[in-house]
Structures
1.
Amino acid sequence: MMSLMLRKLVVGPLKTNCYILASSDEAVVIDPGWEGERILSKIGNVKLKAIILTHGHFDHVTAASMLKEAKNARILMNKRDIYLLKSLRYQLSRFGIEKDVEIEPDEFIEDGDELKLGDSLITVIHTPGHTPGSICLLWEGKLFSGDTLFKGAFGRVDLPGGNYNDLVASMRKLLDLSDEVLVFPGHGDETTIGAERGMMTEITKNY
């Protein structure tokens, strides 16, 4: 079994958690929201196999094209969030940031898809609610939850494309995971499925 590594970088104006998953000779980056040069320096000389976007909001995607060009990597996301990539300038302007960002995904990923990293597998879980194309990624007992699930909270549904009923269905899906699964959210501290089970159950019981 190859050795596996996980590194978290907190990047950008909204303090987004960017994750680097790596085996001995290749890596995957999840949500490169900002600070592309810093992310590159942490990847080092290994092959960047993929850049995976958990959803299309600017604070999770802004450095994706820079990494793609620098490392000849592929950008993966769920197709239901492609519309958000077309509004990145507007999204940024709402935070007083004037910046042109263009991102072209190379592959669309769906619920149940798997991506190999070394001897391990990253499994895609489609979890709409925060956005239509939000996904979580399950890898080696760790869930990278984007803005779907946080420590003590769940993702906002009051932004364009948000849907509370979809979020409830996504919570039901995540309740199928074991309590021991570690949750690495898009913002803030880590948690576990077990620690969030009560909250998720409360959300779903009336729907």
2.
Amino acid sequence: MKVRSLFLTVAWLFLLSFCLDAQVKAPDSRWVAGIGFGFSMSSYIQNQDSIREERDAIAPILVETTLEYRLSRWFSLTAQFSYGQSRTNQMQSQLLSEGLYPFLYSYRIQTATALIAPRVQFRIWQGDFGVALGLGRYRQWYDQSSYGVGGWQYLVKYKGVNNDFFSFRTDYTYWPKRRFGVAIGFEATESFGGPGRNAFPEIRRPLPSGLEPQLVAEVLQPRIRGYSTATIWAGFRYRF
């Protein structure tokens, strides 16, 4: 329902932009390139109920590049690419057949996204206020390391996960110079994948005593939350 409402809102804005566009001349600069940094409030990992844990998650800092082509003063098409990493430290214990087994381990989660979005913008003061609703695709990679009882160490690298996502974004770009601008914005994303699903592990350094299959299946395997984020962006824009 929320996604449908967003689509209807943006569709109305697009229609309004074309009506207004008939009254203004074409933009002087049609291309806008940008680079930005974002702070995202998501760890991408979903807890499993069978695990008791303590978590120290570091929210990902994302780097973004954008390229925008202005079809008119009110309407444009934007391509966005971003990359970021997140690290999560956890202490877990699980009751196995041999007894209570503690783990201290960490995840490194890498996320890359590509997005295409139509965008409407309105001139406000010495800047542009924009609203965009787009479709994109992301890929995430997971690396995990851990130390268990007796100093045992294992390393697991998970195969990457691909999925599609919606993006809703609002931003404001202030242009102190004709070609140079400073932008700040907010973006919310939601993946198509629905509830969490397990990543597929590739064991790099196995655990001893034949515990590895049971541990990976019941304890260590991360449950993917899906690319559902809220991100604050800031960056620079250049018109040419």
